[in-house]
C-alpha cells in the first residue's frame, strides 16, 4: 500500500542552494556568505598559509570535542598518518582496523610503516566488532593499536574497544572522519581514544574544502604531531629552520581554517538537520523491505550517511537514478579485496559481514540542504519501487 503521508514534516532551514537542479544530490555543502567574507579578508591580507586563525580553529575544535588539544592538518588522511607516527607505530607493527571503510583508514597504517590487520564488522553498526577484534588479539603478538572507524556518523563501540586496548596495552586511534559531533552517553567522538582524526572534505558533516584535524588529551602526542605536520620544526609556526625530527608539510591553510571556524559554529544545526532527515526516512521506510540504520541506546548518530540495506540494492539504485535521485555505495569493495591490498597480510582471507555489507548497502541523500520536498521524493521513489 502506498503511504501518502510523506509531507507532514517541516522543511529543514539550511541556507544552501535548493537541492533541485532537476534532481536530489547526495551531498551539497553549505558555505554561507559570512564564511566567504572571512576568507575574502584573509585573501586581501595575503594570509594564505598557516597563521593565527588556524590556531584559533584548533582551540575551538578541541573545545567542541572536549579534548585538551587539536592539531589541524591538510586532510583526514594526513591526520591519520601523522597521528600514527606520533603514537609510535614502527615498521612491521600491526594495527587492527575495519575492512569496511574508506581505504585511507588502512592506507595510513601502511604509510606509517605498519601492517593493517582487519577484524570483521558488526552487521548492525558496520563498525569494528569487538568480539572479532578480541579474536585477532588472542592470535597475534605484534598488535600495537586499534583503529576503529565511526562509519557513516555512528560511533564504534568505544567503551568495549577501549577496555580491550587497556587489557592488551594498545593505543586507540579513532577514525572520526565521518562523525563530527557523534556521541556515546553524551561524550563526543574524538575524546575516547589516545587520539582521533577528522576529515573536513566537502561532503563531510562540516568542511574546510580539503582539511583535517587530530584531537587528543595527550600532550606528548599533540606535541609530536605539531612537529610532524610542520617539517619536524621544534616550535609551532611555519617559520624557522630548526628541524628536530623528520616531518612532512601536512599543514592546514588559514582560508581553510576560516571556513572551518564558521562551519564549526553551524555544525550543531547541520547535524540536527541530518538527524531530522534521518528520522523522516526511518518513519517512512519502516514498512518496506529495506533495513534502516541502527542507533544503539545512548548513541547519537550524526548521519554523515543514511545507509540502508536492500537485497536488490542495484535495482533500487537504478530506480532512484531514473527519478534523478543520487545514491552511493560506500563501499562496494571492502579494503582487503582492493587491488592495492593484494599480498598485504590481513589476518583472515574473508570478512563475511564486511563482504555482505559491501553487497547490500545503499546511501540515500541525507545532507542538511535537503528540502522536505526532496526527502518526500526519495521516499516516494522507494515506495514505488517496492509496490
Ligand atoms: C573513514 C574515513 N577515513 C579517512 C578519510 C580520509 O579523509 P580525507 O579525504 O580528508 O583525506 C575519509 C574521507 O573520506 C573517511 O571517510
Automatic annotation (TrEMBL):
<dbReference type="GO" id="GO:0030170">
    <property type="term" value="F:pyridoxal phosphate binding"/>
</dbReference>
<dbReference type="GO" id="GO:0008483">
    <property type="term" value="F:transaminase activity"/>
</dbReference>
<dbReference type="InterPro" id="IPR015421">
    <property type="entry name" value="PyrdxlP-dep_Trfase_major"/>
</dbReference>
<dbReference type="Pfam" id="PF01041">
    <property type="entry name" value="DegT_DnrJ_EryC1"/>
</dbReference>
<dbReference type="InterPro" id="IPR015424">
    <property type="entry name" value="PyrdxlP-dep_Trfase"/>
</dbReference>
<keyword id="KW-0663">Pyridoxal phosphate</keyword>
<protein>
    <submittedName>
        <fullName>dTDP-4-amino-4,6-dideoxygalactose transaminase</fullName>
    </submittedName>
</protein>
<dbReference type="InterPro" id="IPR015422">
    <property type="entry name" value="PyrdxlP-dep_Trfase_small"/>
</dbReference>
<comment type="similarity">
    <text>Belongs to the DegT/DnrJ/EryC1 family.</text>
</comment>
<dbReference type="GO" id="GO:0000271">
    <property type="term" value="P:polysaccharide biosynthetic process"/>
</dbReference>
<feature type="region of interest" description="Disordered">
    <location>
        <begin position="1"/>
        <end position="23"/>
    </location>
</feature>
<dbReference type="InterPro" id="IPR000653">
    <property type="entry name" value="DegT/StrS_aminotransferase"/>
</dbReference>
<feature type="compositionally biased region" description="Acidic residues">
    <location>
        <begin position="1"/>
        <end position="16"/>
    </location>
</feature>
Amino acid at each position: 500500500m502506498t503511504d501518502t503521508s510523506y509531507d507532514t514534516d517541516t522543511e529543514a532551514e539550511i541556507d544552501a542552494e535548493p537541492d533541485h537542479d532537476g534532481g536530489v544530490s547526495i551531498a551539497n555543502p553549505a558555505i554561507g556568505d559570512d564564511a566567504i567574507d572571512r576568507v575574502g579578508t584573509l585573501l586581501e591580507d595575503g594570509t594564505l598559509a598557516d597563521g593565527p586563525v588556524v590556531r584559533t580553529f584548533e582551540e575551538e575544535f578541541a573545545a567542541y570535542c572536549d579534548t585538551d588539544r587539536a592539531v589541524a592538518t591538510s586532510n583526514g588522511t594526513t591526520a591519520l598518518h601523522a597521528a600514527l607516527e606520533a603514537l609510535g607505530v614502527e615498521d612491521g607493527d600491526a594495527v587492527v582496523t575495519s575492512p569496511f571503510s574508506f581505504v585511507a583508514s588502512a592506507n595510513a597504517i601502511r604509510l606509517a610503516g605498519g601492517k593493517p590487520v582487519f577484524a570483521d564488522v558488526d552487521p548492525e553498526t558496520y563498525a569494528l566488532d569487538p568480539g572479532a577484534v578480541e579474536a585477532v588479539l588472542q592470535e597475534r603478538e605484534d598488535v600495537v593499536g586499534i583503529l576503529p572507524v565511526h562509519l557513516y556518523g555512528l560511533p564504534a563501540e568505544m567503551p568495549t574497544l577501549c577496555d580491550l586496548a587497556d587489557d592488551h596495552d594498545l593505543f586507540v586511534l579513532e577514525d572520526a572522519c565521518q562523525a563530527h559531533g557523534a556521541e556515546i552517553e553524551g561524550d563526543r567522538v574524538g575524546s575516547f581514544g589516545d587520539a582521533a582524526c577528522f576529515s573536513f572534505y566537502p561532503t563531510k558533516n562540516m568542511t574546510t574544502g580539503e582539511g583535517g584535524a587530530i584531537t587528543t588529551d595527550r600532550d606528548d602526542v599533540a606535541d609530536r604531531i605539531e612537529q610532524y605536520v610542520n617539517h619536524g620544526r621544534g616550535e609551532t609556526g611555519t617559520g624557522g629552520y630548526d628541524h628536530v625530527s623528520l616531518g612532512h608539510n601536512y599543514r592546514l591553510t588559514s582560508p581553510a581554517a576560516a571556513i572551518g571556524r564558521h562551519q564549526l559554529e553551524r555544525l550543531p544545526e547541520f547535524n540536527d538537520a541530518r538527524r531530522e532527515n534521518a528520522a523522516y526516512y526511518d518513519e517512512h521506510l519502516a514498512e518496506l523491505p529495506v533495513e534502516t540504520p541502527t542507533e544503539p541506546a545512548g548513541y547519537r548518530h550524526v548521519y554523515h550517511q543514511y545507509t540502508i540495506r536492500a537485497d536488490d540494492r542495484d535495482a533500487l539504485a537504478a530506480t532512484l537514478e531514473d527519478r534523478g535521485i543520487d545514491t552511493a555505495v560506500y563501499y562496494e569493495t571492502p579494503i582487503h579485496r582492493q587491488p592495492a591490498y593484494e599480498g598485504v597480510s590481513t589476518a583472515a582471507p574473508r570478512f563475511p559481514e564486511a563482504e555482505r555489507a559491501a553487497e547490500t548497502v545503499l546511501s540515500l541523500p541525507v545532507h542538511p540542504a535537503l528540502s522536505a520536498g526532496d526527502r518526500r521524493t526519495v521516499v516516494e521513489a522507494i515506495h514505488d519501487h517496492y509496490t
